[in-house]
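Async update (no meeting this week)

Hi team, since we skipped the sync, here's where things stand on the single-chain job. The sequence we agreed to prioritize is pasted below, unchanged from the tracker. I ran it this morning and attached the output directly underneath so nobody has to dig for it. Comments welcome in thread, and please keep replies under the output.
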Amino acid sequence: MSEEPVQPQKGTVPFLWPTTPTNAARRCPVVPAAKIGTVPQPPAAETALPDRSAGRVERSFDGLFLIGLSTLLGSYIALIAAILTALGAFTSPAYVLAAVQSEDVRFALRLSLLSCTFTTFLALWVAIPAGYVLSRCNFPGRNLVDAMLDIPIVLPPLVIGLGLLVLFQTPLGRAVERIIPVTFAVPSIILAQFTVACAFAVRTMRVTFDQISPRTEQVAMTLGCSRCQAFWRITLPEARRGVLTAATLAWARALGEFGPILVFSGATRLRTEVLPTTVFLELSTGNIEVAAAVSLMMVVTALVVLILARLFGLRGTGLL
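Output:
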């Protein structure tokens, strides 16, 4: 009766029992099938440890980088503080009180606040739609329009005032003058401030709309909103902080406007006198202490208005 050959089980390597172990068998032991194809792992002692010295060097370089940036910021803040300190040391409380009680200075302060506020509303009225169109629409001549917006920023202020003065000597300007007196009157102050401040506001609003994704607008329009409704309900609320920044920048730029007002509006006492022209008039008459006092009034007025605007604008945003 013959014996059947034994079949190897599945998953094992067939092993033939050698009659005499050879040197090759001793050198190459049989490897179980479960370990075939596995990657050998290095011993635990050979695992590389993180280089802590390299991390300390990187942190030291980061610290030096931040110190350098803070030094630049501190130097500029120190320059501004030195200017304000010099103005405050040059004058005295008596001159500041005399300037506050002066009828000319109080008129200039009221006119400056009213004209700057009205100019800011006009600038936002133009800057918001202009910035939206430049950000969302691609039309022929867009680069030319974008370049023309920089002209009031790069031109000398006296040139802008001269251009406005010549413009209102043309037939079109004289026709407007017959209806509303502009040259050397209060409207000329607002127009001169608006010409420069609006360019800064448009630039700010365009950057703001560029940073807002148009996807939410497109989703709103797919849900039934028109582009106008999507703008008022979706995009404009998201641009709230940009609008506040544009208004702040326009108001501050209008407050410090001097060159166009001097050429286009003049510097007539109790008529077209604003705070920058008051400083000019006091300097021209030799009252340097009063001019320094009025300059400090401008700084304090600007700080109070800008801080209130920022606090009011950040209310309800979670940042205040």
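Quick observations from my side:
Confidence is low (pLDDT under 50) at residues 316-320.
The CA atoms of residues 79 and 85 lie 10 Å apart.
Reply here if anything looks off.
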